[in-house]
TrEMBL record:
Record GO cellular component, one term: cytoplasm
Domain of life of the native organism: Bacteria
A GO biological process held by the record: L-arginine biosynthetic process
Coiled coil: none
Pathway: Amino-acid biosynthesis; L-arginine biosynthesis; N(2)-acetyl-L-ornithine from L-glutamate: step 3/4
Cell compartments where the protein resides: Cytoplasm
Keyword Oxidoreductase appears in the UniProt entry: yes
GO molecular function, one term: NAD binding
Similarity-based family: Belongs to the NAGSA dehydrogenase family. Type 1 subfamily.
Keywords from the named record: Amino-acid biosynthesis, Arginine biosynthesis, Cytoplasm, NADP, Oxidoreductase
UniProt name for this protein: N-acetyl-gamma-glutamyl-phosphate reductase
């Protein structure tokens, strides 16, 4: 258990995930944001000008990133909501200052450098840190060992793993699970991009059989998966539809009861009686999970908010638990 308020900094605070995290940190009495940064190229800007819906009563300034700004402040935790390459570059210097790093990007989600390079298309600048990083899929987190770099899972992997891990771990699946997941456009970040502009967005699969979240999901499950992401014409939320073939034992098991038992202690994951909608969870830290089964087939549907459960919310819970605090501080009233 930590005593006192945790002094923290947020990098990438002008982005969607970073701004969402600032809002959670401001609701969390155990954390104090001592600095928030955009990229080095950006002018300082007041957070409430950028995100009035989150920051109406805050006077926090978001400053251009400059490591030297940390020289004269005491910082225990840094949250990185940065592009993957920027996180991989900046994290080692923060760790060298004795700061615990919670990384929302994909920079530390793979255990080894070859898998990382294959998924992300560049060599990791600090490969030795990969083996030391802890993957923070929260229902499976237990504070067994000390770490200093914490990898927050991707948004699609969070939804997919909540659906599949309880079945794979129990040996209830045979063959290859098939995941089709539709994401709102905020999943692509705030930066301008023709493919995510208002007039272009329709309903379209992308990264088919080559998205970097396929190996992330596979690594965590210990089995192959087919993963197809789809960009949908809405702002917030992911709906992951996961279709599996059950083993004989899986087919005779009440899977709803199995999921309820799995998540009984995890109030953010709610097993619901009808297939969920992204609007049921948008702007909330919850995942809604539904399972339907017929003979040897099961379809598990999970809805999350990509920016909360899929990014900032899971980072908030991770930091709470690493520092021995109430797991849901900042997340639940
Ligand atoms: N969006 C989502 O649903 C999810 C995102 N993530 C991950 O979280 C991270 C952030 O995503 P998101 O918020 O969507 O992205 P955005 O594009 O919205 O924000 C990126 C942020 O990083 C800053 N930045 C960019 N380059 C640098 C750099 N070299 N040094 C310092 N700061 C930099 C930007 O500053 P500036 O504004 O000044 O350019 C901005 O604050 C990504 O790694 C993403 O993959 C994870 C799960 C879900
Ligand atoms: C809709 C959309 O573009 N989604 C992003 C994934 C969301 C995300 O940011 O996940 P990571 O943290 O793993 O990067 C994508 O497919 O790249």
């Amino acid at each position: 258990m930590s005593s006192g308020v945790i002094q923290c900094v947020v990098l990438g605070a002008t982005g969607y995930a970073g701004s969402e995290l600032l809002a959670l940190l401001h609701k969390n009495p155990h954390f104090s944001v001592v600095k928030a940064f955009g990229s080095a190229e950006r002018e300082a800007i007041r957070w409430r000008e950028l995100a009035p819906q989150l920051a109406a009563h805050s006077s926090l300034m978001i400053e251009p990133w400059d490591m030297a700004q940390l020289d004269h402040v005491s910082v225990q935790a840094a949250f990185l909501a940065l592009p993957h390459a920027a996180s991989a570059d900046i994290a080692p210097a923060l760790l060298a200052r004795g700061i615990q790093v919670f990384d929302l990007s994909g920079a530390f989600r793979f255990h080894n450098a070859c898998d990382f390079a294959q998924a992300y298309g560049f060599e990791h600048p600090a490969p030795t840190l990969l083996a030391q990083a802890q993957y923070m899929l929260m229902p499976w987190y237990s504070a067994q060992a000390e770490h200093s770099v914490y990898a927050i899972p991707g948004c699609y992997p969070t939804a997919s793993l909540l659906a599949l891990k309880p079945l794979v771990d129990a040996g209830f699946i045979q063959g290859t699970p098939v995941i089709t997941a539709i994401s709102g456009v905020s999943g692509a970040g705030r930066g301008a991009n023709p493919a995510t502009s208002f007039c272009e967005v329709s309903m379209k699969a992308y990264g088919v059989l080559q998205h970097r979240h396929q190996p992330e999901i596979s690594q965590q499950l210990g089995c192959d998966v087919v993963f197809t992401p789809v960009l949908g014409p809405y702002a917030r939320g992911i709906l992951a539809v996961c279709t599996v073939t059950l083993t004989e034992q899986g087919a005779v098991t009440n899977l709803q009861a199995h999921f309820q038992a799995q998540y009984a202690e995890h109030v953010l994951v709610q097993v619901v009686p009808a297939p969920p909608a992204v609007n049921h969870v948008a702007h909330t830290p919850f995942a809604h999970l539904h399972v339907a089964q017929k003979e040897s087939t099961a379809v598990i549907t999970v809805a999350i908010d990509n920016l909360v459960m899929g990014a900032a919310g899971q980072a908030m819970q991770a930091a709470n638990q690493v520092f021995g605090l109430n797991a849901y501080a900042g997340l639940l009233p």
